[in-house]
Amino acid sequence: MASIRECVIKFRDGEGVEHSVEVAASSLYEAAALALNKFRRCDWSREVSFEAGTLCVELWEKPTIHRVSIAELENWLKRTGGKPREVALREKLRRTLDE
């Protein structure tokens, strides 16, 4: 992780309950340390399984949003030829829209 990313860090306690916190960090260990700091402030973190446990760090990327006009989509679907993969995809999508 080079740039700062949103992360969700999870920990499952001795009773099987999953706890999670969100942090912004630029490295795996930074994310884990920030989460550990937050977890240690909770009453449940005093149990024995906490110090011997494992943190699960998930990177949460922001979604990429694209806008496609219906006219563009329909024009693309009307095209013929092209790479075999694109031709197959257009045919599949035409059938989907005809259903």
Main-sheet strand order equals: 2-1-3
Q: Helical content, roughly?
A: 40-55%
Count all strands and give the number.
Answer: 3
The amount of beta strand, in percent, is: 15-25%
- Round the Cα radius of gyration to an integer and report it: 23 Å
Task: Please tally the helical runs, counting DSSP H or I stretches of 4 or more residues.
Answer: 4
Q: Uncertain spans, ≥5 residues at pLDDT below 50?
A: none
Structural class: alpha+beta
Biggest pleated sheet:
3 strands, antiparallel
* Distance N to C terminus: 44 Å
What does this structure look like?
With 99 residues, the protein is an alpha+beta fold. The chain folds into two domains: 5-60; 66-99, no CATH class. The protein contains four helices and three strands. The chain has helices at residues 28-40, 48-52, 70-78, 84-98, and strands spanning 5-12, 18-25, 56-60. Strands 2-1-3 form a three-stranded antiparallel β-sheet, covered by helices on one side. It is elongated, with a radius of gyration of 23 Å. The two termini are 44 Å apart.
Could you give the topology of this structure?
Elements: E1 5-12, E2 18-25, H1 28-40, H2 48-52, E3 56-60, H3 70-78, H4 84-98
Antiparallel strand pairs: 1-2, 1-3
Summarize the structure.
With 99 residues, the protein is an alpha+beta fold. The chain is built from 4 helices and 3 strands.
Supply the key terms.
99 residues; alpha+beta; 2 domains; 3-stranded antiparallel sheet; 21% strand
